[in-house]
Write a structure and sequence with these properties.
Strand order of the largest sheet: 6-8-5-9-7-10
Number of domains: 2
Largest sheet: 6 strands, mixed
Number of strands: 10
Shape: globular
């Protein structure tokens, strides 16, 4: 009698670390595809983000936080569409010799946030790479048909709103590099672990929306170009955390342009502002009005309370 062939290393890794994360449609991660049945009467929303070691996270970041950040940056995109999360697909390309303990920690972080946000793994791919650790996650959410909030709906006279605070993630990276004091660890925590604003019901309230990943000024410019409107950003109204304020005025431009906020940026008609405040209060998510949209060129003007324009060398992060 012949003995069964040993399980190849890749499939052994999948069975140990990723199969426990799989939902019903994943078919035990034993097939080439998954099955997904959308909730009745709902429309699917899909988005994908990649993370590369040394670019989107530090190579020595704890693996559980890397897993949670990978999931959360994608959840943030769903939040900006007013969507509820459902499931995800994932690709992991790791250098040969990556310790098994790293995969165990990575999967444990995913499991923690799967429980928090009500999602499960459908499938994906694992490969080796000679380059840095590279991760990609495609998340699937759902909305009532026709209610997903796009970038294209902003109108002149709409106000500009953001959730949470701006700049903590960018300053957290600087704190990790020893350039900014962070005695409480708040800034580094925000860099490593975003707070996706899942649960803020912006459908029917925001006329346009996106999450802030590449810098507030740059992402506001994306809405302007998509909607063919201008914007006035009131710099002194942008909400900063106490640790960000403590970093000092020299880091203020970094807060506006640095990225890694993963807050929701919205265009809101004036008559819907009470509804936004009410929804935000019910969801326990802070929101702040930071400017308004205008007719004219699709560009962002950044102004201080005095009316003075604030000149910026760049608007935000570039992927190339």
């Amino acid at each position: 009698m012949t003995s069964p062939s040993p399980l190849p290393a890749e499939f052994d890794l999948i069975a140990r670390h990723f199969r426990p994360l799989a939902g019903p449609g994943a078919l035990g991660l034993r097939d080439d595809a998954a099955l997904l049945m959308p909730p009745p009467g709902r429309e699917l929303v899909l988005t994908v983000d990649a993370m590369v070691a040394g670019v989107h996270f530090l190579p020595d970041d704890p693996p559980d936080l890397v897993g949670r950040k990978l999931l959360r940056v994608n959840l943030s995109d769903l939040a900006a569409k007013g969507a509820a999360p459902l499931a995800y697909l994932m690709t992991v390309s790791a250098p040969r010799g990556t310790p098994d303990a790293w995969f165990a920690g990575f999967a444990a972080g995913l499991a923690q946030d799967q429980a928090t946000f009500g999602v499960s793994l459908l499938g994906g791919d694992t490969t080796s790479t000679p380059g840095p650790l590279s991760l990609s996650l495609t998340i699937i959410g759902h909305v009532a048909p026709g209610t997903a909030v796009h970038r294209t709906g902003a109108q002149p006279g709409n106000s500009i709103w953001v959730t949470g605070t701006i700049g903590d993630g960018a300053l957290g990276l600087q704190a990790a590099r020893g350039r900014v004091a962070d005695p409480t660890g708040h800034l580094l925590g925000r860099y490593r672990l975003p707070r996706p604003r899942i649960g803020l019901p912006i459908a029917g309230i925001a006329s346009a929306s996106m999450d802030v990943s590449d810098g507030l000024v740059q992402d506001l410019g994306h809405i302007c170009r998509a909607s063919d409107v201008g914007a006035v950003l009131l710099a002194d109204s942008v909400p900063l955390s106490e640790p960000a304020r403590a970093a000092g005025p020299d880091w203020f431009i970094t807060c506006l342009t640095g990225g890694d906020d993963y807050e929701v940026l919205m265009a809101v008609p004036p008559d819907r502002e009470p509804a936004l405040r009410s929804a935000a209060e019910a969801a326990d998510i802070p929101v702040t009005r930071v400017g308004h949209f205008t007719s004219g060129p699709a560009e962002v003007m950044v102004r201080r309370t005095s009316g003075e324009s604030l000149a910026l060398d760049k608007g935000g992060w570039s992927h190339f």
